[in-house]
Every structure is written in structure tokens, then in C-alpha cells.
């Protein structure tokens, strides 16, 4: 009887094992692959299959994106309407090539060459609305109103394209059915698009991953915010915030959901985005980097954002300062935050009153006396000295104080301001005392740039 019982038990166990083995074999996870048969139109499948072979990097980037996870395809961003100015004529040729996958007319869809914030607004309306009000989106207008290089034609068009416009943006144009090479490629934050929108979301969320993580990292901002005139990334790296970031960045939760990135939980010290864009405490996330700013430290004379003539902010600096203080108070005590602003405001006052205003008065006197010539800027040494006083050392001093980087506030900032100021005033007084006109560089190199302000921006303002 016992032997029979054991035999029955063994039989049952064997049957259960066979059933479990068959079930496991049937349900064992398959090798991971991207599935495209999830309700996509055949035209979208054609895009994916073609790019999978022709531009594997683009395809791979997209498969790793949140867009792909949400079944958002090439068409959702790139599909154009008949008559749109930015339709790619070159792309149309792919639909009649027998050697291309899906190269048939039945898959044809008009494709936009450049994806714009207007395209992104189909799914991200609030972000695009905020961005449109920002200094980023309107930086070409600001640049033309502020910069003597452009208005005086003191650099070449290509120097501008490869330098200034790479970050600020171009005015896109179409020639012979495709984007004009003099304006493309470009993903500048203030790019003027053919559909009338301003900017490029891929400046910070690069295609085709469109990563929130990427935009949260300071290196992304450092693509443009660096160098002698606005070294925010260098300043950040010197600061205590930057030091903590470098030490602990591997522990940061970069992929926290938008609007939920929280100091003390997801990150230990802030990045650029933490202070200027991300939500924190009761402060909401914004894509308008003009918010939370209480001084315009890029301006020649430091002013409140609403008084910045090239682009007056539609904000109240006291309200915005309170927002920034609330960000700071997530990690700092009230006395720390209040005393920081005392130091910052004092640095702004001293720059304005001690350095900029006396130098500007002297510059105006030289022009009034005819000792400097206004025909072109930068072709006389004192014009360069004055420009670099505010555009280089003056900005570094103010921005260093603003972001708590002592080396930039002093050695790269006010220390250099003193020497630049002294050289400028010494030469200026010599010209006045001797009634001598300043030497003009007769062969200023490559001063061939077009001085026409972009009508796509300035005609709309009239």
C-alpha cells in the first residue's frame, strides 16, 4: 500500500513538473525587441523601418525615448501639412526608390525638415507657451538690440553662423525646396522657424531621445553658457553646488517624473535646471527661464528684468525673487538666503556705481568731443576696453557673486574690472588732455557682416 502511495505521488509530481515546464517554455520572456505593430499607421511603420536601416543612430535613440514608449512616432512630430514652407522636398524622393525599404508612393507623407515648438505644442502646450515668453526664445531680438558686432557688421556672416547663431539661433530660410545652408543646421534656443514659432526644444532635449535627464544636467546648459563673457558652467563647477554635484551626481535620480524632481530625495545639490526651471516645494515648474530672476546681470548696466530695454520681462522682480528664495529654502536656512541676497545686491550696486557709470560717462564725453568715432564700433581700442569691462569682467563679477563662486566674483571679476577700468580711464584722460583723436584700426579684419535686422522679428514688432 505504501509503495503504491509513493508511486502515485511520484506520478503526480512528474505530471506537475511537465505541466510547469511546458507553461514556462510557452511564457518564457522573448529576447527584447522593439515592436511596431501597436496601432501605428502604415506610413509611420514605413518611417521607422526605413530609418532603422538608413540612420540606425536615429532609430536607436528614438527606441530609448519616452516618445517610443508612448507610441509616438516620427509622424507625430514631423508630419507637415500641404503648403507648409518647411516641407522637405529631398525627403519626397525616398518614396519612389525601389532600393529603399517602403520606398513606395502609398507610404508618402509630407515631412517637415525642422521640428519646431509649434509642433511640440500639440502635446506640450504649457511648456511651449512658457518658453515663448522667455529670454531663450527671444534671444535673437535681444542680441540684435544689444550687440555691436551685429549692428556694426564687425564680423562675417559665417563667423556669426558658426559662433553667435549656433546658440542664439538662425532665421531659417528655404532655397530651392530645401533648408538654406546659410541658416541650417541650427538648433539655437531663439531660432526663428518657418511656421512663425521661436526656438528649438532640441537645444536642451536633444533628438531623438528627448531626455528629461539630459536637460536637468548642468553640462547641457554649459553648451552655451560658458566662456569669457558668460561662464555660468565654470562658475557653477567652482561653487559649492557644483562641487557636491560632481561628488554625488551618480546618486541623483535623473529620471524622476517631470514636476516631481525633489531636492533631498532625488538630488542633493541643485543644477541649473533645479533653480531656474524645475519645480520645488510650492514653486511650479516653468520653461520660462526669465522667471525667478531679480537682476539682469547680462546687461551693461544692471537693471531689474522689467527694465531691461532689449526685452522687458512681464514679471515683478519681487515676486520672482520670492520664488527663487523658496527654491533656496528647500536646502538652506532663512538667514543664509537673506544674507546671500544682501551680498549679491551690494555687488550689483558697486559694479553699477563704481565701474560702469563712470566709464560710460567718459565714453559719452569722448564721442561728444569727437575724440572717438561712432561710425563703427571696435575699430578703436577704447571701444573694445569699454565693451569688455561690462561684457567680460563685469558679467563675470556679477555672475560669480550671484552663483557663489569666489574666484569668478574676485579674480576673474572685480579684480579684472579694476585693471580694465584703470587702462580705459588713463587712455581716455590722455585723449582729453591732449585733444587727440583715438587711433582707428584701418584694416579691421572680416568686418563684412550684414547689418540688416531680421524682418521676421523686427517687422512684427512695429
Automatic annotation (TrEMBL):
One of its GO terms (molecular function) is oxidoreductase activity. Pfam families: Cytochrome_C554, Multi-haem_cyto. Residues 443-462 are annotated as: Disordered. Gene3D superfamilies: Hydroxylamine Oxidoreductase, Chain A, domain 1, Hydroxylamine Oxidoreductase, Chain A, domain 2. InterPro entries: Cyt_c-552/4 (IPR023155), Multihaem_cyt_sf (IPR036280), Multiheme_Cytochr_ET (IPR051829). It comes from the Bacteria. Keywords: Signal. Residues 1-24 form the signal peptide. Residues 120-181 form the Cytochrome c-552/4 domain. Transmembrane segments: none annotated. This is Hydroxylamine oxidoreductase. The lineage of its organism: Bacteria, Pseudomonadati, Thermodesulfobacteriota, Desulfovibrionia, Desulfovibrionales.
